[in-house]
Write a structure and sequence with these properties.
The protein has 14 helices and ten strands. By secondary structure, the protein is an alpha/beta fold. The protein has two domains: 197 residues, Class I glutamine amidotransferase (GATase) domain (Rossmann fold, 3-Layer(aba) Sandwich); 104 residues, Homeodomain-like (Arc Repressor Mutant, subunit A), CATH 1.10.10. A six-stranded mixed sheet has the order 2-1-5-6-10-9. Strands 3-4 form a two-stranded antiparallel sheet. A two-stranded parallel sheet has the order 7-8. Helix 1 crosses helix 7, helix 6 runs antiparallel to helix 7 and helix 11 runs antiparallel to helix 12. The longest helix has 18 residues. The protein is globular and about 65 Å long. The two termini are 41 Å apart. 36% of the residues are buried. Keywords: DNA-binding, Transcription, Transcription regulation. It comes from Aquipseudomonas ullengensis. GO terms for molecular function: DNA-binding transcription factor activity; sequence-specific DNA binding. InterPro entries: Class_I_gatase-like, DJ-1/PfpI, Homeodomain-like_sf, HTH_AraC, HTH_AraC-typ_CS, INH-QAR.
């Protein structure tokens, strides 16, 4: 029997906790035997208030000392608050032996990393938290494009649904792929869903309001299919190319060319929903002279080819 401890902390996301708990319990039901023995633990063994619900636990962290797998569910997006309120857990995690498996769901990766459990190991978390994670934990090998990662008994997953992808992976690891596939079928979810980059928005939210860049972005959205270079953008904004580069990067976090390519590919994602248009027509519609250049950039930004993107959409209908 595989012993699993589910951690419940002050900011634990209820849906993340219940999803993991349900996955292992349903796996037992489908297997017809108790393959996974799950317990819930908190820092002090006391119930944890999580907004509209109080979660009962089976004990404190000592109960998880000898389990096979410790799962840290998502803990919200306020990282400083998360780290401050889980100090006891961090000290406990830092002492975990290498042979004990530790897994994080979504933002729970910050707790593993803060305890040093992800040093020199591959890791992932929610795509929107990538910048902060890299800044805080440069010693971890962040692979933000991945839905989940595995590295020497340390497992991480990306946002929300990726937590289920990781649970399926862990069930396959311990009980066999057949059970993971049965569970995926029962939950009506697809395994091997590709990289997390497929789900991240291509265009960033503006970092700051800029009276020069704001109107230029609106103009770009209307003219992205045209031939556009830096000089034309500077002329449209009535400034020098040097000023444009500086203020554009400050406002969007991207260079003008990077933003333009992402804008075109975003428009292509919409155009690909029309099955009547060929890939060549879509490429030309959004501003690319040839299909090869378009397809290469699409895969680079979206994690899949235009054809695979269109096929995946058609399977939903």
């Amino acid at each position: 029997m595989i012993r699993i401890a589910l951690y419940v902390g002050p900011q634990t996301v209820c849906s993340s906790l219940s999803m993991a708990d349900d996955a292992f319990r349903l796996a037992n039901q489908l297997a017809g035997e108790r393959l996974f023995d799950t317990v819930r633990v908190s820092q002090d063994g006391q119930p944890v208030e999580l907004g509209f619900v109080q979660v009962r636990v089976d004990g404190d962290l000592r109960l998880a000392e000898n389990v096979d797998l410790v799962v840290i569910p998502a803990s919200g997006s306020s990282v400083p608050r998360m780290l401050d309120s889980n100090a006891t857990l961090l000290a406990w995690l830092a002492k975990r032996p290498a042979e004990q498996q530790l897994a994080s769901l979504c933002s729970g990766a910050f707790l593993l990393a803060a305890a040093g459990a992800l040093d020199d190991r591959r890791a992932t978390t929610h795509w929107s938290l990538a910048s902060e994670f890299r800044q805080r934990f440069p010693q971890a090998k962040l692979q933000i494009e991945q839905l989940f990662t595995e590295d020497t008994n340390r497992f991480c997953s990306g946002g929300a649904q990726a937590g289920l992808d990781l649970c399926l992976h862990l069930i396959a690891w311990h009980a066999g792929d057949w059970l993971a596939q049965r569970l995926a079928s029962a939950l009506v979810v697809e395994r091997e869903r590709g990289p997390q980059s497929r789900f991240a928005p291509l265009l960033p939210e503006p970092r700051e309001e800029d009276g020069l860049i704001g109107p230029l972005l609106r103009w770009l959205h209307e003219h992205h299919h045209e031939a556009i270079d830096l000089e034309r953008l500077a002329a449209q904004a009535h400034c020098s190319t040097r000023t444009l580069l500086r203020r554009f990067k400050a406002a969007t976090g991207l260079t003008p060319n990077d933003y333009l390519q992402r804008l075109r590919i975003s428009a292509a994602q919409t155009a690909l929903r029309n099955p009547a248009r060929s890939l060549e027509q879509v490429a030309a519609q959004v501003g690319y002279a040839d299909r090869a250049t378009f397809a290469k950039l699409f895969k680079q930004l979206c994690g899949e080819s235009p054809g695979a993107f269109r096929k995946r959409l058609s399977q939903r209908t």
